[in-house]
Amino acid sequence: MGLSSSMWAGVTGLLAHGQRMGLISNNLANVNTTAFKASNMYFADLVSVNIGTDAGIAQIGTGVGVGAVYSDLSQGGLETTTDALDLAISGNGYFIVKEKTSTNANGTALRSGNLTSYYTRAGNFRFDSDGYLVDENGYVVQGWEVDTDKVRSNEVSGVTTSSVPIKGSIKDIKLDQFQIPAQATENMTVITQLDSSDTDHATSDTDPFFAMAELWDGQAAISGGNALADTAYAYQTTMTVYDQNGTSHVLTIYYDKVTVSNSGGKEYWEYIVTCDPSEDGRTLPDSGGGTAVNTTSTAGLLMTGTLTFDSSGNLINMSGYTLKSDAVASGGAYNLDQWTAADVNSSGYPQFTANFRSVSGGSATDSANAINIALNVGIRDTHGFVGGASNAAGVGDTVSNLTGFTASTLKTNSTVTTNYSTSSSTVFNSQDGYASGTLTGVSVDSDGILSGTFSNGQVLELWCVAMANFTNANGLDSVGGNLYAATVASGQGVTGRANTGSLGSISGYSLETSNVDMAAEMVDMILTQRGFQANSKIITTVDTMLAEVIQLKR
Fold first, then answer.
1. What pLDDT is recorded for position 157?
2. Residues forming beta bridges with residue 404, ordered by sequence position
3. Is the pTM of this model over 0.85?
């Protein structure tokens, strides 16, 4: 290796260290860039040349070059912010963004936009004027739409899922649901503890299981009195429900212990579900020309039935009776012979209706236009009520005449009405109706579910933020703006939901900070500077040696 080769070796050192200084400068420049990943440069020696020596063939290197540049993909710190749409990824994965499709005033697509997917860990997102969730470059965040129908169906059926159901393929996240319409109550849960030491308040020699129903007088309430005397029941609880127009109504459930001689060691309680008699919009029979229920003493009485407890206070069965579409009033009331076994919904809970809006053909659970409310007291049976007398009048004081669920198909929930020797109380209640509301805020949970909070107190799950991961994330192409593009080296991204597979979780009100280590970069800068100086010294030294060679001709 001659002197000129030595000089060129020094030149390669200058070039390599110059590039390394550029990389260090870029790292330090992005020390406060959201989710920036530092890069590390690795040198590699250049090809060596063979020379002859007394010991044989030997090799001398010809300099240095840049061997590789790898990103430091370690997790950056999480910075707390005040915006719910600031999202940080804890663990593996990238958010997916795309250029949004442009539309004209009529909503017609003008162009499809850039179909290329970009990937980023910078989660400083905001909604633009069109309702799209966009990044700082105006690219739209991608995700799945939540299957709200499935969510509601699961709630009705009592099905618990490990993840929020989604529908369709990944698409632009766009918020266009700034108002939600009213939702009529279709399901109500009332779990109570009924005091086993209580006594029978409402009594009847002929119909002890329906004593409260017989005492109920809706017309007395309409006239300003009480439909049921305070001394006629052991316990009562109320719940606010909503009709299809979003108007609220108060339902009251009364409970009273039943004393029968043939109880067989069990305890029986009767219950009635009632509303304000003046709000009862039913007309029966429902086929036309029927009697307005709110003109009878039955006004406001929606369902009656019994609860059966074993000797330990556990609920083991129930019955329910309602007025069907062919019920006929007699003597200013719908007598017990018009009350038949209640229908059950798809989940097995007994149903009733009040027809608050006086809808034609909606006055009974078997009517075509009925909006039914299912009552959950902790047990259910999709096979419905079986056995017993054909109507409530045929029950009398005989337990076996009560309709009920089949023991082998009855399901008991984890939360259920009880009959222990403690004071009566309402343990839990809920219902699924609500008035209309406007969007007041949004939030994103750790699974990437974007939910909207509305003025009526409802929180609806709207979107699921999509994420992607790569086998070789170092192969991603940085295109600026905190964005990466997939390459052949990185492979195509595997999409999925946060907290599934190898994908990390999402933190709202947070941003991932740069993972640049300033102290390490300063040390690297010093070493790079010294390396550059040493290589420059090679050139000046070789130059001096060449000058000496030139001087030999003198």
1. 62
2. 386
3. no
